[in-house]
Amino acid sequence: MYEKEREELLERLVKWGYLSKPEVIEAFKKVPRHEFVPNNLKNYAYVDQPLPIGHGQTISAPSMIAIMLESLELELDQKVLEIGAGSGYNAALIAELVGPKGRVFTIERIAELAEFGRANLKKTGYERVHVVVGDGTCGYKREAPWDRILVTACAPEIPKPLVEQLKTGGKLAAPVGQHYMFQTWMVVEKRSGKEIRVRECGSCSFVPLVGKYGWKED
Ligand code: SAH
Question: Which of 13, 31, 79, 168 has an alpha carbon within 20 to 30 A of 141's alpha carbon?
C-alpha cells in the first residue's frame, strides 16, 4: 500500500536537495510512514508536512527528517539514542541505517505516546528498537556511551548530559532555540575529552523539549 506515493515523495525530496545519501534514501524506501501516523491521517503520510500524533505532538515533515538523518551521518553497527520517540518513525529509519547489529534506544516522556510508538514499531517489524519512558534531557546513562544522539524536540541549549554521554568521535544533532520559532539545527561532534565542534545547519521548527535540561513544564 502507498508504494507509489512513497516513491513520488522520495523523488521530490531528492530533486529538492533534501535527500542525497543512498543509504538514507534506501531507509526511507523501506519504512512505511503511513503505519506511524493516526488512522485518519494515513492519506497524508506521503505529503511533505508534519502531522499531529496526539498529546500536542507531531511527527516531523519528511524533508526535516531527511535533514536530520543526513546530518547525523549514521553508520552500520552504531549505538544510537533518540530523544522524543513520538510515533517511532525516526527510530525505525535509524534502525535501518545502523542495520541488524546496531542498537537503537528512543526515549519518550509521554507514556501514551511511548505506547503508540512501540505498537507502530512492532507492527512494522522493528521490535528491536527499545522504547523507554522518561526524561531524555538526562540521556540514558544505563546504556551510554553513544555513537550518535538525535534530539527531535527543541531545547533552549544542548543538554549537558547528552554531550557527556557521547563517545569520543561521536555526534549529536538537535534543534536549539526558542519555543516554535527561531530554532537552529545544530550538529555537535565530540572531538576528544571535553573538546566539541558545533556546526549550525539551518533553521527549523520543533515542539519543545520538556525536562530537567530542557524547558520547564507549564
Ligand atoms: N521522533 C518523533 C517525533 C517526535 S515529536 C517521530 O518520529 O515521530 C517530539 C517528541 O519529543 C514528542 O513526542 C514529545 O513528547 C517528546 N519529548 C519532549 N520532551 C522530551 C523529553 N525530555 N524526553 C523525552 N521525550 C520528550
Answer: 31
Under 8 Å between Cβ of 138 and 212: yes
> Of residues 20, 60, 71, 203, which has the active-site annotation?
60
* 32 falls within a domain: no
CATH number of the domain where residue 87 is located: 3.40.50.150
- Is 149 part of any domain? yes
Task: Answer yes or no: is 121 within a domain.
Answer: yes
Distance CA 143, CA 156 (A): 25
Distance, CA 60 to ligand 1 centroid (Å)? 10
Domain count, the chain: 1
Rounded average pLDDT per 10-residue block, the chain, 218 residues:
96 97 98 98 98 97 97 98 98 98 98 98 98 98 98 96 96 90 94 88 94 90
Q: Ligand 1, atom 16: nearest CA belongs to which residue?
A: 84
Question: Atom of ligand 1 at shortest distance to CA of 82?
Answer: 1
- CB atoms closer than 10 angstroms to residue 26: 12
60 is known as an active-site residue: yes
